[in-house]
Amino acid sequence: MITDNETDIVYISSLLEEKHNKFHKQFISLLNELEIKWKILANTKDIWCRDFMPVQIDEERFLQFSFNPDYLRDEEYQHLRTNPDLVCEPLSLNPLKSNLIIDGGNIVKSKSKVIVTDKIYDENDMLPEHEIRREIRELLGVDEIISIPQEPCDVTGHADGMVRFINENEVLLNDYSPFMPSFHRDLLEIFSEHNLKVNLFPYKIFNTVNKDKVPSAKGNYINYLQLEDIIIIPEYGMKEDADALSAIQNIFPNHTIRSIDCNSIAEEGGVLNCITWNIRKNKK
User: Fold this and answer.
1) pLDDT tens digit string along 108-146?
2) Interatomic CA distance for residues 276 and 50, integer angstroms
3) Residue 16: CATH number of its domain
4) Is residue 213's pLDDT more than 80?
5) Looking at the domain assignment, is residue 284 inside a domain?
């Protein structure tokens, strides 16, 4: 699998500039300052390109899961459902196809492991759980599928707002202990069973929703953007910003770490990893 720290280009939806103009300007300015290559994705219906774009397996192969999330199936949300084929076509991208319904935001990957939430079983309930895991393993060419419970109240059920790989043997996990101690213990137990060392990361929950009843992502720092030796983390104008920045600097001492105000996009339920699709473009 191509991991985040092997990627060298970022794609964003053409709608980001339209919907969040101020943030877009600041984000593009930061990408340019850090000399990160970026491009625009056309034919998107919302800004969350992580979810409808394919997963990169290696330099040549991409895998497109079925983008049919339950939270967009009601008629009132149909206008937000992107057709991935229409986005991939201008890129001359012809990914492998899977009928499994999985959002890209629910694939957290290392070289040989993938973390998903148990939402994959709900959205693919026509198949037994072991068959779903087997298919993901074979399609992505990984050794291990680590299934965790989805965060309560998160309608998307995505893993990338909960946990990230540091390396093959360590993960970074939201510190849920002050808010959901039982849920927190369950997660620690699962990662222990898979012999993964857990590093806790600052996290704050705001019980607010937007006009579409989507919970705010404000306080989520783990949904950062990582490319090669660069990490960009969200900031919200809170005291926890400094804690998150310090923590990520300690965990990735050899990376360039920058932060950006993400309040506007967080109101819609996601932050930096959600709005980006980063891949390895140049062969190494």
Assistant:
1) 999 999 999 999 999 999 999 999 999 999 999 999 999
2) 6
3) 3.75.10.10
4) no
5) no
Residues 6+ apart with CB under 8 A from 181: none
Range of the domain at 69: 4-279
Average pLDDT estimate for 196-201: 98
Tokens matching residue 128: 């037994």
DSSP β-bridge partners for residue 164: 172
Residue carrying structure tokens 């999330």: 69
| Rounded distance between C-alpha atoms, residue 163 and residue 173, angstroms | 5
Alpha helices in the chain (DSSP H): 15-19, 21-33, 49-52, 84-88, 119-123, 129-140, 181-193, 240-251, 263-266
Quick one: pLDDT band at residue 209, thresholds 50, 70, 90? confident
Q: How confident is the model at residue 284 (pLDDT cuts 50, 70, 90)?
A: low
Radius of gyration of the chain (CA): 18
Nearest Cα neighbor of 50 from 86, 123, 103 is: 103
What would the two tokens of residue 50 be? 């992580």
CA 109, CA 55: separation in Å to the nearest integer? Answer: 10
Q: How many domains does the chain have?
A: 1
Global model pTM greater than 0.85: yes
SS3 105: helix
pLDDT for res 75: 85
